[in-house]
Amino acid sequence: MTLSADDRETLRRVSETSETIEAYKVPTWIELTTSGGADPDMRVRVELRDGAPQIVELAWTSQPHQSEIRQKHLRQIDLVKLVTDLVSSTLTTDHPSRGGDLGVQIEQIRQSKDPESEADYADYVDESVALLKQAKRESEKARRVAAKFTERQRLPRERRRITDSHLRLVAEVYRENFRSGPTKAVSKHFGVANRMASTYVDKARKAGYLPPTKQGQKKA
User: Fold this and answer.
1) Beta-bridge partner residues of 69
2) 36 contact partners, CB below 8 Å, separation of at least 6
3) Among 48, 68, 98, 159, which is 20 to 30 Å from 115 by CA?
4) Sign of CA dihedral 16, 22, 24, 28
């Protein structure tokens, strides 16, 4: 995707692969390049690591016609806002949205009215405006929810949503260490307390990656 503002051009590239976390399909990587104009070009790359979107590359390049890289260019970058805005703008969900049907709905309203009637035309305008306002509210709400989701995924591991790939790895570590303290092995592997490791194991069982337990008997 390419966006232009004044003499600056912004190019965003998004990976074709993604990981599903809750209802969201989160890209495995995103790259954003801003170029042109008097200021140095900037490039940022965000990768999804262990369920958390992280900035892994941030660079400036001064072209011959641009100013040198100065402290002000670094101060202008809010890293948290940058990664949150970038990731949340790319999120897609498995849940259907109204946005794609908006034009169809407005056309259905138009067809239901008498084109020769001023009253019907006024109703058509009012209903269409109301529909557009509702769609805008829903879109803004979806953006806020996506931003909160992104912010939460950047929290320490124990406070994030746990992904399917994470639970599969939990199950793998658990099975490999089944005869020598599997929960402790999970704790050590992921760098979390035993209590959180037990939570991981429970969630892996509920997700079907580990068999259910019988009272007093572990299963892997």
Assistant:
1) none
2) 7, 8, 9
3) 98
4) negative
Amino acid at the residue 17: T
The amino acid that residue 135 corresponds to is A
Question: Do the beta carbons of residue 47 and residue 154 sit within 8 Å?
Answer: no
Cα separation, 114 vs 127, whole angstroms = 14
Beta strands in 15-160, from DSSP E residues, in sequence order: 18-21, 24-27, 29-35, 41-49, 52-61, 92-93
Residue 211 contacts residue 219 (beta carbons within 8 Å): yes
Beta strand ranges found along 50-189 (DSSP E): 52-61, 92-93
Dihedral angle over CA of 150, 162, 190, 31, nearest 10: -30
Nearest to 26 by CA among 81, 79, 99, 93: 93
* Encoded tokens for 40: 């140095």
pLDDT 10s digits, 50-82: 778 889 999 999 999 999 999 999 999 888 888
Closest CA to 144 of 77, 85, 80: 85
Using CA atoms, how far apart are residues 34 and 148, in angstroms rounded to an integer? 25
**Digit-coded pLDDT (tens) for 137-161:** 766 766 777 777 777 777 666 566 6
pTM of the model: 0.54
